[in-house]
Amino acid sequence: MNNFENNLSLNDIFLLIRVNSKIIALLISVCIAISAYHTYTTPPVYKATTAVMIKEIPGSSMVMSIGGYRQNSRMSNEVQLLRSRRVANEVIKRLWQSDLRNSLNIFGTRIFYPKGERVRRIVKELFSLGFYDPSEESAKSYDEPFSNEIAERFANKVISGLRVVHREGTDIIDISYSSVYGKEAMTIANMIAAVYKDLEKEISAEEANSSVEFLDQMVKRQEDKLSEAEEAIKNYKIDYNMYDSEGSATLFNNRLATLESEIYNHFAETNIRNEQIIFLESKLTEDEKNLADKISTDINAQMVALRSDITALESQLIQNSMIYGETHGAVIEINKKLAILKIELDKKVKALIGEGITIGDPLVERQNNISQLLSLRSEIFGLNLKREETLKLKEIYSNKISELPEKQLNLSRLKRDESVLTQNYSFIRQQLEAAKIRAASGSGKVQIIDVARKPETPISPNNFNDLFQGFIFSIFLATIVVYVKEFLDNSIRKPVDIENHNLSILGIIPSIGSQNNDYKSSLLFRAGRKTNKSIKRSIITKEDPRSPISEAYRSLRTSLLYTDVDMDTKSILVSSAGPGEGKTTTVANMAITYANLGKKTLLVDTDLRRPVVHKVLELNKEPGITNYLAGATKNFSDLVQKTDIHNLSVVSSGIIPPNPSELLGSEKMANLITKLEKEWDVVLFDSPPLVAVTDATMISKEIDKIVIVVKVGQTNKGAFSRTIELLNNVKAPIGGVVLNAVTQNNSYGSYYYYYQYYNYYGSDKA
Predict the structure, then answer these.
(1) How far is 430 from 419, CA to CA, in rounded Å?
(2) CATH assignment of 500-763?
(3) Are 179 and 107 contacting, i.e. CB atoms less than 8 angstroms apart?
(4) What is the pTM (predicted TM-score) of this model?
(5) Is the torsion defined by CA of 299, 305, 306, 310 positive or negative?
(6) For a Cys staple, 687 with which of 199, 423, 562, 696, CB 3.0–4.6 Å?
C-alpha cells in the first residue's frame, strides 16, 4: 500500500507541493541553471541558402500517356542526388584544395569559442574524471594532400549540415547549409550548388552519349530492314504484274500498317528503356534491385485494372469505325471518352508511383536511382499493355483483309510491312537526332538562380525557448520525483490510513519541533530551561499549559471522556506499533490533563523493557511495579510516588525483570488492575510497543480502553496493521488512535488543518 492508492483532493495537492517545496525549488533551480549554462555555452548556428532550377532538356525523355508522372519523381531524384555522398565528397575535395582549408570549422582548422567557453571547460574538467584533454578542442592545421580517406572523414559533416527542399509545384530546389560561422555557411552552400551543377552536367552527357550509341545501331538495323521490304514489294509486283490496291484493301492495309508501326514503336521504345534500365541497375545493390522489383510488381498489378475501361472503349471504337466510319458521331463521342480516361489514368499512375517510392523505400539515399528505375519499368509495362491491345486490333483488320483475293492480300501485306518499317525508321531517326543535340549541347539542366549570402543573425540558440524548456522539464522532473517519493513512502500520513481499520482519531498532537515562531519565542524558550531536543521528552502540559500542544492533549482527554458516555472508563493503556513514536510523552501528558480536571490519577509504567516514565517526571525508578509483581514488596501503596502536580501519582517500573510478559500476564496483575480501578478515578498504563513484544496484549483484556499512538510520517502502515490485528485477535478494547508529531511537512488532509488550528488558537497566548 502507498499514499497514492486513494485520490488526493485539490487541497492535498497544494499541501503536497508545500511539503516538498524545497525539493521542487531545488530541481527547478538546477534545471534552469543547466539550461542557462547550455544556452550560454552553445555555439550559434548560421544558415545560408542558395536556389537552383532544374531545366527539362527537350527530348531528354520519351514519355507516353501512362508515364506522365515523371515530373515529381524527377525532382525527387535531384533532391537525393544533392544529399548523396558523391556530392559531399566532391565538396570536401574542392574545399581541401582551396586556400580556405586551414580556416574552416568543418575541418577543425577554425574553432568557435562561445562566451561561456571558460565555464564550459571548467565544467568538463570537473566531471570528466581526468579524461578531458583541452588540446583536443584546439584548432588544427593540415598540410597533407587530398585523399579518399580525407573525403570519407569529413563528408558526413557536409551531409549533417545540409538541408535540401523542393519548392512544391516548381522546378526550384533550395540548398541550405548551417555552420557556426555565417561566412562558412555561405561558402559551403554555394560550393554544394556548384558541385551539383557540374555533376548533373556530367551525368546528362553520359546518358546522352549512351542513347546516341544505342539509337545509331537501331537506325542502321532499321535501314537494312526497310531496304529489304522495298525490294520485296518491287519483286512481287514484277512477278505478278500487280498494281496498287484500291477501296477496302487500301483502307485496311493502311490501318494495319499504322498498327504494326505502333507495335514496332512500342518495341523500339521498350528496347531504349531496357538499355536505360541496364545502365541504372549497374549502379544499384542487390537489395535495391529487390526493392525495386517488389514495388514494380505492386504498381503493375494496379495498372492492369486501370486500363480495363480504356481497353473496352477501344474495342467499341473499332467496331463503330468499321460500321459507321471515323466521322460518325458515335465514333467521335467514344474518342472523347477515351481522351478523358487516359488523362485520369495518367493522374492515377502518378499517384501510384509516388506512393510506391515513398512507402517502399524509407532510405532516402536509395530513391535517386530507384525512382528512375521504377519510372522506366512502369513505362515498359504500359508499352506492353498497349502492344497487346494493338495486336488485338491488328487481328481484327487482318481478318478483314484475309477476305480479299490472295495476290492482292499478299501485296497488301508487303506494303504494310514497308509502311511500318518506314514509320519506325522515321521515329528512331528523330530520337537519334534529339539525342545528338543533347550530347552536343553539354550545358546540363541545372541553373543557379540565387546564390547564398552571408547570414547576419543565427537561427539558434534561442535563449528564451531554451530557458522555458528547461523550466518545463524541471516541473516534469519535480513531479516525477515527488510522485516516486510519495509512492515509496509507506508511513501513515492521511486520515484514510486510519479509517481503513474502522478506528476513530481521538486526538492530533502537533510536533513540538514544528511550533510557529510565536511559540518558539515564548517565555519557555527564551528562558532556556529546556532545549528543543529535551522538550520532546518533557511534560509540556506542565511546562507550558497554555501552548497549542497542551490544548491538543486536553482535546484528547475530552475525546476519551465522551467516546463512550455510557461507559465509565477507569483504566487506559497507551501503546504504539513501534519504538520512538511518543507513547510515553503522550501518556504522561494525558495523566496531567486528567489530574488538572480534578481526577485522582495514577500513571503506571508497565514498559518493563525500556522504562522512561521516571525520567520524564524526574522520579525514582525503584521500587516499582515489578517489585510488587515479583513479591519483593507486599504493600502496593508503598510504590506510589507523589508528584508536584496535584492529583497525579506515579508507579515506576522498578527493576527490569527477565520475564516481563509472564509478570504482566499473571493473575496478580489482573487483580491489581481491578483493585486500582476501585481506588483511583483514572489509571493510565505506559506499555511497550505492540509489534515488538506481547507485553501489552497480556493485560489488554483487563483494561477498559487501549489508545494507540501513531507518529505521522514515521509509523509504518504494515506495522500498524499488524498491531491492530494482534489486538483484535485477543479482542482487546481499542478506543482509538492518537496522531502524534503532526507537522505541515508530514501530513495531508485533516491532519494538517488540525495542526494549523492548534497553532492558531495557541499563538496569541503568552
Answers:
(1) 17
(2) 3.40.50.300
(3) no
(4) 0.47
(5) positive
(6) 696
Range 493-511 average pLDDT = 81
Burial of 186-224, coded b for 16+ CB within 10 Å and e otherwise, reads bbbbbbbbbbbbebbbeebbebbebbbebbeebbeebee
CB atoms within 10 A of CB 358: 12
Q: CA-CA distance, 42 to 53, in Å (whole number)? A: 35
CA distance 456 to 182: 7
Interatomic CA distance for residues 505 and 496, integer angstroms:
11
Q: Strand 601-605's sheet: what is its strand order?
A: 505-510, 734-742, 705-711, 571-576, 682-686, 601-605, 648-651, 641-642
For residues 123-137, average pLDDT: 57
d(CA 659, CA 695): 10
CA separation for the pair 525, 151 (Å, rounded): 79
pLDDT tens per residue across span 424-452: 778 877 877 777 776 666 567 888 889 98
User: pLDDT band at residue 72, thresholds of 50, 70 and 90?
Assistant: low
List strand residue ranges (DSSP E) for 544-700, in order. Answer: 571-576, 601-605, 641-642, 648-651, 682-686
What residue has cell string 485477535?
729
Provide the 8-state DSSP code for 103: G
Helix (H, G, I), strand (E, B) or coil at 741: strand
Does pLDDT of 359 surpass 60?
Answer: no
What does the radius of gyration of the chain's CA atoms come to, in whole angstroms?
50
Q: How far is Cα 474 from Cα 31, in angstroms, rounded to an integer? A: 5
Domains of the chain by residue range: 1-42+462-489, 44-61+70-223+442-460, 246-403, 500-763
- CA 82, CA 162: separation in Å to the nearest integer? 9
Are 429 and 268 within 8 A, CB to CB? no
Residues pairing with 200 in the sheet: none
- Which pLDDT value is given to residue 542? 87
Between CA 78 and CA 54 the distance in angstroms is 8
715 membership: H or E segment, kind and range:
none
Residues facing residue 573 across a β-bridge:
685, 706
The predicted-structure confidence for 601-640, as pLDDT tens digits, reads as follows 999 998 888 888 888 888 888 888 888 888 888 888 889 9
Spatial separation of the C-alpha atoms in residues 742 and 356, rounded to whole Å: 68
Say if residues 92 and 151 touch (Cβ distance below 8 Å): yes
Query: Contact, 55 vs 486, CB < 8 A?
Result: no
Q: What is the pLDDT of residue 189?
A: 92
Three-state secondary structure readout of 412-451: HHHHHHHHHHHHHHHHHHHHHHHHHHHHHHCCCCEEEEEC
Domain formed by 44-61+70-223+442-460, architecture: 2-Layer Sandwich (3.30)
- Name residue, grid cell 458515335: 330
Whether 614 and 621 have beta carbons less than 8 Å apart is answered as yes
Rounded Cα distance between 464 and 581, Å, is 50
Distance of alpha carbon 260 from alpha carbon 229, whole angstroms = 14
CB atoms within 10 A of CB 579: 13
**Percentages of the chain per state (helix, strand, coil), in multiples of 5:** 65, 10, 30
Q: How far apart are CA 175 and CA 451, in angstroms?
A: 10
DSSP E strands in 131-191: the ranges are 162-166, 172-179
Phi, psi of 260 (to 5 degrees): -70, -30
